[in-house]
Amino acid sequence: MKIALAQVPSVEGDIARNLTTALDAITRHGDAVSLMIFPETHLSGFAEIGHVADRALSLDGPEIEMLCDASRHHDCALAIGLLEKGEQETYNTTLLITPESGVALSYRKTHLWPDERNLVVPGDRMGVIEWRGLTLGLMICYDIEFPETSRALAQLGVDVIVVTNGNMDPYGPTHHRAAQARAQDNQCFLAMSNRCGEGAGLTFAGESGVFSPSGETVFQAEREEGIYLVTLDIALLSRARKDYDYLADRRIALAGEPSAPLPTSSQDALSQASTSNSTAWRF
Fold first, then answer.
1. What domains, with CATH codes, occur in the chain?
2. pLDDT tens readout for residues 104-143
3. Where is the CN hydrolase domain (predicted)?
């Protein structure tokens, strides 16, 4: 499976320009790949104080329709971020658009960065979709720093975690390390497309990447703008899961109980502390 990481700049509030950037990338590279991934909130730019509702887009709006048409025309699925206009709230959302279904999956960012918590509303669910023999799931930027989000997708059978990213300096290395861990922890591919350039008072780190089910770096871009084509060797999925299966082998789901009675007094507590640095639990 060949994918494209669209490491491109965005302009806050300039929806027409951001849409043109996306459509141009699809026109130039869409026929050569199965999936193209754009950065977090690429269509609208970031939410900022005083600029939230005016940048939010409806999922049935003309911009999304144009992207669906481009997806069908080039037979290429798209993952792209935007500020979504809800009935009363605004969300940081990523869409997975497929040639067959249009908007096939919509994900609202569940872990909001501190600067956006008073601007948009967090999502409350994870989801996956099976497409052309693979199960795809979505995450957005800060989500990658929490093992719970990727593990939720893994429990739904994900093969490829798709991350739309808006990571800025100096946190590029943080997301590289997190991406490796999330891929290895869940024995799946992780493909991450990050924003580059400047905007909203930030300098974006670039460094989009693809990581294998064993946590190895398959590809990592530098900081420059570009459309990077990467092939996923799907055989690596079965190879990583052949000898052991983290989901099946984990034991945290079992109820635990103390392996020894808990101390009932300060003197007992001091005595126990002298022989152990922590309470032991048996599973």
1. 2-249 (3.60.110.10), 254-283 (no CATH)
2. 999 999 999 999 999 999 999 999 999 999 999 999 999 9
3. 1-234
